[in-house]
């Protein structure tokens, strides 16, 4: 199982972090060990003093594929949820200053959270999807899939030009504006439309 992530897929998020708006999907990966298993506590990483949440829509791949045309891409995922791409922002900034890869800031153990999966319907693929996240009962992020620079089908097609997609792979599709710092004791809740799909306490 592979975890693909899309960076800077919302214009306002790219701007809030001072990044250029990309002209093609920005792809990075997390290893299998990055996936937080269900009923496993999430612990604040010891190597960071600035942990950020990034709520995202996550796709689950249901067919093996390579060089997938965009017109066929919708057949390659069958479930969707909301997740968190946790980022050690202080570590990331130091690595970026040195021009170094930043997997240590993004791909560490348990840095990827996924909520309860929702089966994809034809209607769901036609309409924008609302998702959001609360921190300690207050909304901190709200997103709409139609605001993505690169929609689901384009992301899947683009990734498949470089990597084989396999059943069970996950794609984190990018975070909207509103990312921010979290601390021990915070309660994070993710919502797909109006339904809560995860609740997480930072320990």
Please give a structural write-up:
With 203 residues, the chain is an alpha+beta fold. The protein has a single domain, classed as Alpha-Beta Complex (Fumarylacetoacetate hydrolase, domain 2), CATH 3.90.850.10. It is built from 5 helices and 14 strands. The strands form 3 sheets. Strands 1, 2, 4, 5, 7, 8 and 11 form a 7-stranded mixed beta sheet that branches. Strand 9 and strand 10 form a beta hairpin. The mean pLDDT is 94.
List keywords for this structure.
single chain, 203 residues, alpha+beta, Fumarylacetoacetate hydrolase, domain 2, 14 strands, 16% helix
Radius of gyration: 16 Å
The CATH class assignment is Alpha Beta
Question: Structural class, from helix and strand content?
Answer: alpha+beta
How does the major sheet shape up?
7 strands, mixed
Q: Note the quaternary state here.
A: single chain
Number of strands: 14
Could you give the distance between the termini? 27 Å
CATH topology: Fumarylacetoacetate hydrolase, domain 2
Order of helices and strands: EHEEEEEHHEEHEEHEEEE
CATH architectural designation: Alpha-Beta Complex
Silhouette: globular
Low-confidence stretches: none
Number of helices: 5
Determine the strand fraction and express it as a percent band: 25-35%
Fraction of helical residues: 10-25%
